Amino acid sequence: MKLVTIDATPGGIAGALLESGEILHLGRAAAPGTIEAWLPASVRGILQAGPEGLEAVRRLVRRAEGLGASERDRLRSTGALTDASATPLLAPVPDPRLILAAGRAYGAHVREMGGGPPPHPTAFLKSPDSVTGPGARIPIPAGIEQVDYEGELAVVFGRACHRVRPAQALDHVAGYMAANDVSARDWMPGVQAARTPVEGRQSWELNIMGKQFPCFTPMGPVLATSDAVGDPSSLQLVTRLNGRVMQSTSVGDLIHPIAETIAYFSQWYRFQPGDVLLTGTPAGVGFGRDPQVFMHPGDQVEVEIAGIGTLRNDIAAA
Questions:
Q1: Which of 76, 136, 288, 298 could form a disulfide with 112 if both were Cys (CB 3.0 to 4.6 A apart)?
Q2: CA 317/CA 213 separation, integer angstroms
Q3: Ramachandran assignment for 96, one of left (phi > 0), alpha (psi -120 to 50 degrees), beta (any other)
Q4: Within a 10 A sphere around the Cβ of 2, how many other Cβ atoms?
């Protein structure tokens, strides 16, 4: 099942992508007098409703998938079924409470940025205000010159997750999305030139701030539920800039597997339904290339994850 958030009202409305390529508006398609009519209006709300909420959505989607042509026409006439290409979407979870972004996650990426593999997962927080959706423009702030792409697989939690073991970790995952940890690298020279711990900490903090600008965390277009994805390590991730492949790798190449990463950070964080973990980016980022490649107004960046979908965004001047 693939959940979406339709950009129809402030905050969006929960929907689902059908196999036909059409978008099902869950609220409009719900059967009156059933649990479907009581479903929360948002994807995060549905996740907070627990397994029963997701199962109610599955029943609704299965029923829609089985409709005949005339019944589908009726749904189209009420706006419950719309063409995906004409339906604006927000990020599948446009209002995450917490975004934790893993760094130095793929060996080849660690090497291209300079350094060795970390002994344990590393991460930083991203501002929820940086979230945007598929098709949205990513504005480059004035004075920022080195804006980079970082295609990533995003994990969305479906259950409270705190102090879990790796063997339990994926049981707390609702599903997965494509994401782009857009990064202004303008402060990286300071990181590389640091000679003392204080200089290193201060310059690294500025580098992390370069990931917090509005719209620097596009996600989507769908949240593919765990049962539809299976083993996330089998997924293939590709990032393109203006049609050119810049990153291509298997999620299985992560230094620390997703379950291990979740378990590690759950020692401190109490993940809640709708919270997001960005799992890190593979080699091929613009900063690590020779010559370096950065994004500019007029460019288009895509992050495609096989079996989930393609996140596409245009770069624009602020």
A1: 288
A2: 13
A3: beta
A4: 23
